[in-house]
Structures are given as C-alpha cells and as structure tokens.
Amino acid sequence: MFLFPFLGFLCGLLFALPVAAQPDEPRAEPAAEALPEVEGASVELSWAEVRALLEQLTRYQLEGVGAGQRPPLDAMVHSARLRVTVGEGVLLVDGTVDAEVLVDGWTTVPLFPLPTALRGVSIAGAGEPARLVATPDGGVGLLLHAAGPHPIELSYAVAVDPKMGPKTVAVPLPHAGSIEVTFVADARLENVTAEGAVLVRSTGLRVGPGDADVVTQRIFAVRDPDGFVLDFVARRPLSGMSPSLTGTPGGPEGPTAVEPAAPAEPPRPVRYRADTGIDVAIDPAAVRAVVRIELSIHDAPLEAFDLDPLPGWELVKASLDGTDEPLRLEPADGVLTVRLPYPVEERAGLTLLLEQTNERKLAVVAAPAINVHGAYRQEGAIGFRLDSTIEGAAGRVEGGGPADPGELTLPGGVVAQVAFRFHKVPYAIEMALRYHEPRAVLTAAVERALVRVIVLRDGKTAVDAAYLVRNSRHAYLAVTLPPGAEPWGAFLGGRAVQLGQRADRPQVVLVALPRPEDAAGEPEPFVVQVTYFLRGDPVEDFSGWDFALPRIDLPIAVLDVEAYLPAEVTYRSVGGRLDWVAAIEAAPLAGWSAGDYRGTEVAGKARDKSGELENALWDQTVALTKGALAARFELPKEGTLLRWHGAIVLPDEPVGVEVTTRPAWLDRLVWWGSAGFLLGAGGLLALGLAAWAASRRRRGWLLLGVAAASAGAVVAARALAIPVARPYLVFLGFVVAGVAVGAMNLFRALAAMRRGPAAP
Description:
By secondary structure, the chain is of the alpha+beta class. It is built from 8 helices and 41 strands. Helix content is 18%, strand content 40%. Helix 6 (664-693) runs antiparallel to helix 7 (697-721) and helix 6 (664-693) runs parallel beside helix 8. The radius of gyration is 48 Å and the shape is flat.
C-alpha cells in the first residue's frame, strides 16, 4: 500500500516524462474544480489502482482530453449515384456508393435494408475482396476493417415483367444521405414517371446511327429510398435486346456493344377470344350502355381489331385497362377499327361508354350489337336496368336467351333487372318500353323540432327553433317567421351559416342545406337552428298570451315547444293544435346530430358513421360559412316553464300556442280558502259520524251528506280551476285528516255509550 505523499511523487515523475509531438496551437485544457483541503487525511491505494491511474494520466498526456470518445455510429453512407438500364426482363442498376467507417476494427456498413439480387460489389482502389454479410435486420451489409472513406462500386438487378403494357417496378436503394438515380429508357418505354423522387433533368442521347438508337436519360433526386417506384409503359416486349446503355455518357466506358439478336421465329397469326359484358341503363332522358370486352390473346401480340358499326349509338369514351391513353376507333370500309396504344399480349380489357337520347320517345331499345371481327369465339351477357318510371318487357331476342340477373357479371358489378346471354354473333336483343308519369317524393323531412321561447313582462320575445333534418335533394330550408320578427342567425350542425331572404316575402328566410347525394344508404340527420327576436304584447294579469310558431316548408314528425314566461303569473293553456304536457322527453340538441333521441336505432347507426358524416357535412358547408356570420346567442332560461307536444305537422301548417293568465296571489288565496273549506268538511264529517254513532241518525245522515258534498265540490274546483300536476293528492291529505278526527270522535262516543248514563 502507498500513502498520499508517495502518490504525489509518482505524479511529478509522470509529468516530467517527454510528451508526444503536439500541434503548434495550444490545446484547451479543461477547467478542474478545486479540491478541498483535508487536514491530516491520507489515501491508501493498491498497486492495480495506481497502475490504472498512471495509464489514464499517460493517455491524457499523449492524446489529449478527447481520448476514448466514440462516435455516435460506427459507419455511415454519404451518397449514392446509381444508373438504371433496361435488360432482358430485368432492370440493371449500377453505380457508386460513398461510405465512411468512423471507428477502427471490423465494422459493418449497411447497404440495403432488404435482401437484394446483387450482381457484384467491389471497393474502389482496394486490393482485398468485398465481404458481404447479413445485417441483424435482414438486410445486406459490407464488412470493412480500416477507418476512413470507402467508395463502393455495386451492381444489382430488379426483375420486371418482359411483356408489353404498363409496368410498376419498386427499385431497392441504399439508405444514403443523398441519392441520385439516372434512368435510361430507349424507344420501347414511354410515360416514364417515378414515385418517391423528383425529376431533375431529362435529356436525349444517341447511342447509334438509327432512329431506334436514341435513348432518354431521366435524372431523379430520391427523397424516399424505401418508396422509390418506376412507372412506365412498354410498347414492345422487354426481351431479345441488350441493355439500352451502360456507363456514363462521354466517359471512358461509353455505350456497350449491342449483342447480336437471336434468330427470329417465323411469325404466327394472332388468335383471340372475346368475352363481352353489356350494361344498358334506361332512364327517361337517355339510354347509356357500358360495354366491357375481355380479350384472351394467343400466339402473337394484338395491335388492332375491328368491330361492327354501332348505328344509333354515340361513343362517349373508349379506354384500355392499365393506361390513361384513349383508344382510337376509326371507321373504315363498314367497320370500326380499334387501334390499341401498344401491342398487347395474353389479356386485354377494353371499356366502351355509349349513349343515345331518349326523351321518353323510344318504344324499343336494342342492346349494342358487339361483334369482334377475327375472334375465334364470342360470348357474353347483357343486362337492362330501368328507371322506376319505366316498365319494360323482353322484345325480339335472337342469338341468345334469358338469364338469371344474379348469376351474371356485368361492368361495374351492377345487378340488372332483366338479363340475357348470347353465345354467337350476330345477335339481337331488344326491350319494349312503357313510360309512366313520375310522382314527387319526399326528399327531405324534419324528424324532430324543438322551439324554445323566452318571453319578458314587456313582451320582448326571443326564439330558438331547432330542426333535426334528413335531406337528400332539398336545397334550402324555408322558415316563415311571424310578422315583425327580426332574424338573429342560423346554425348548421353547430356552425354559423348565412341566411337568405326572399324578395317577394320578406318574412321567409332561407338556410342552405348540405345534400349528401353521393352517400350510400339513408342520409344521416343534422341540426338546423334559427334564432330571431320580436316585440309582442306585454304579459298582463287576467288576460291572454298567444304565440305563432315559425312555419317551415318540410313536414315535421315530432314537434315540442318550451316557453319560459314571466314568473308570479299563473298560466293555463286553452285549445290549440298541440297538447299541453308536464314534461318533454329528453332530447338535448348536442345529441341530435347523432340521432340520439327517443331510444331509436338511429343513435347506433349514426355513431358508427359519425366521423364520415361530420367530414362530409363540413366539406359541403364550407361555402355556406363565408361572409358575415351570426354569433352564438344562448337564451336565458328564466321564469315559468310551459311545454307543448305535437306530431305530424305538415309544411306551412299554422301552429301556435295560447294561454290565459291570472295573478299568482289569486291562486294562493284560492288554495288556502279551499284548504279551510275542506277542513270544515272534515269536521262536519266527524260530527256526522259521532251523531250517527249516538243513534241520532237523522242528524248524522244530514251532516254526512253536507260533508261529502263540500269535499267533492272543493276537490272538483281545485282540479279544474288551477293547473296543479297532482291536485287530488293535495286534497286527499285533508280528507284523511278529517276522517281521522271523525274516527277519534266515533271511538269516544262508543266508549261513552258503553259506560252508560251517569248515576244520580
């Protein structure tokens, strides 16, 4: 063991050692914290601890403060410059990847995150071979030993379908900070685009004397190496030719020599079969047909074919699957020649959109007669779909027969009302039509309406009318306000919208409604609110108050009215279209947009579609929320609450409520008077029972009759005159009290009779 003085001696010897050559500029030394002075303290260290301390001090003297610090990663890939060319059913990728190893020792440089078909990997300027290893995440990496930059040359292949037609090829790329891809396309390729990258430049390059020896180089800057996808259309098969171009233009490599092509086989004529599906939709204005032709091609590519003319039909659009280019239909020598945008092998799908005007004039509609010339076999299905105002029956049928609509496959997956099959051409299939007058249907309705009315003593009235609307085609909700009403605002689904007004009828305001015409199934409900203000007659005692509800141009299934009237006044409803109720079934406006009311199944269905519905309604109401919009104004709920309820209110049907008024002190006076009256009746009842028990039957029956008549009159008056929810329960208490007093007197009389008369 060594003591602290000896440790200081060793440190002095260490600093006296010669140090390694350092740069001329002074090295920044770290600021050391001052150690506290401890009197009489000593430290005991073992030889292993002293040796470790000496090694650390020596390393500090020789290497400085940064010794032993490790970089955050062992290796990195700076950039990649790749070139993509077209081979025989394959895309060839060649280029250079700049990598750097940051630590000494064996290190794995990640090249590809997924397994890749590598053709060759080499390290530029290195005499050792490239060592490929699998990375822990399943990719491909390169094992390097020396630290520093390493240019890596690699080549790999990506398979591509050699047949003609549109191609979508995902090209794996190394994860580098900067990636540039040059795609070399010859005359076989058109409509070249790339996903996950930005086109920087496109240039042409001649690699031979012929017109076919011109290639196009497109340089892409890649932003997403995992999502780099090349899209192009092959006009000819990607086989039988060598890569278009390899090497860098103008560089030492130059264009590669073209390999001699294999001897061509004798050409064989193309053979194809046609399967046709025709959907004929008939409505009063026009007849539209969607023709789907599926071609099975054999022996050779198909570049064009002929169809029979289509008299009476106008060709709206013709398209080929897999390409956006329109098909060309050229009339020639009594046929329609269909020229494909490129030769097609094996299978081709064509779609023709045909149309002819109707205007309720066509008595017979014939399906388009599709005859593909040169096809060794033709068959197909035809389906007719008729408007609800058109009745159809099968007419002339030649070359085919009826079929089950559910078993046929028609364009777009539609199900026809009347269906046929044909197995030979030519064919003729017709439908005889009979037209009926269309009837108007309900395109919008209000499932529930809630009108809240706030009335002050001086007649100021504020109204908030909310309507739960289901709409499919209605453009506006027309609300007719009472005379003198001043609109305050309108809200659609809780969002403020603009109000319109009819010039010829100023009291009619219009609220534009969203129309979810493209939504599948039943349209979902939404809430429309209209608020307005008017000045009415003051609310006085011994008078009446009536209120006309706003009228709308839609039928209302359920209508509820809540009126908050001035307090200290007693109200009684008199007549009217609506029923006066004690309470309205709970239906908060916040839940109406989801259909959550009256416990129906609408709530569940609306919750499932709430997100989709809210997005659709918001998209359609953006245009309605421009300009000056109303501020939300919450009506205060103060005073006496009265409620009315009704059902099936027709459009523009006048509906209102009316009440009579009297002061509240009159009700209190009547209440106490009737209570005293009933107590007196109870007393008379008790006296009558006592007299009856004392064998004074005549007097007892008289008192009983008077008591019963008095109690009945008071109870009837209270029930009819004053609107109390349960008046009979109130007066039943007085009756019970009177009967109890009478029974007690009866028992006392019976006890007196038992004792008999007092002795003289």
